[in-house]
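Archive transcription. Copying these from loose printouts into the bound notebook so they stop getting lost. Printout 1 of 2:
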Amino acid sequence: MSQNIVITTKRCDIRKAHFSDVAFIIQLLNQKSFIENIGDKNVSNEQAAREYIEKSFLTPYQSGLVSPYIVCLKSGEQIGVGGFYQRPYLTGPDLGYAFLDEYTGQGLAIEACTALMDFAKNELSMKAVYAVTDPNNVSSQKLLSKLGFKNSGYLYAHSMKQPISLFAFQSA
């Protein structure tokens, strides 16, 4: 297993990001569904993508903080991101994920997120994990329920105009 691969599943490898992921990050973050469900990260060129990779992936890796990863098919093709974020408005890590539209509806997100949650419990010793989603994003809410998350209501973060749905997972 490559040292960059953190988790492997039946169909996917979940690995650390690197600067060669720039084109993929631009594609994913500018996808209409990403902007509608997560938000516009203003990453539309190579320099902005490099800065995003540095801030969102590489700095957390170096700091030993919770972090997101790149989800790839076994062929190495990047299809999504998934992992853990520490949001300033949450007391624990947040499971976040996003996939290219052409890879949704194939069970890849549940496969990757199940592996990430197992990793959180068994390797990172996380007792509680949160997830946030747009209240209208029913498919994400269904996935979170399948993972064992419970809907905990709504919250407003300081910069948000609309409420977001909060989900919580408590490890036994």
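Printout 2 of 2:
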Amino acid sequence: MRILSLLLLTLFIATGCCSQKKTNMATTQIEYSALSRGYYKKIVVQNQTVYVTNGRDQQPIETKIDDAKWNKIVAEFSKVDLNKLSALKAPTEKRFYDGAAIGNLKITQDQKTYETAGFDNGFPPKEIEKLVNLLVDFAKE
């Protein structure tokens, strides 16, 4: 009986922690932008919805994210260390001579904003590469 109650308590606590993380993800906003003189793209993901803006004077296009893609985003997001986001180094420097648009990843969670330094669009830092590529895929659809 004691083992059974301990097992149930453990299961209850584990379930509570998982649902708390999902609720936390529901209030998280992930924003990727790529800018240059003649190029503008902004992708905002929040609560299983994506907003894609393809021009400076354009209205965002809203699309629902299916569960499979959302789970991939959540999995990649959980690997990102938000406190180290601003210290990530860009692997290339094409943006310095207009060889690439300036990419930027901004994450807002619990009223705190975490932001990367600028990096070349298409060449994000390795630590956030998979997450950024998942976000950019929405603009291709």
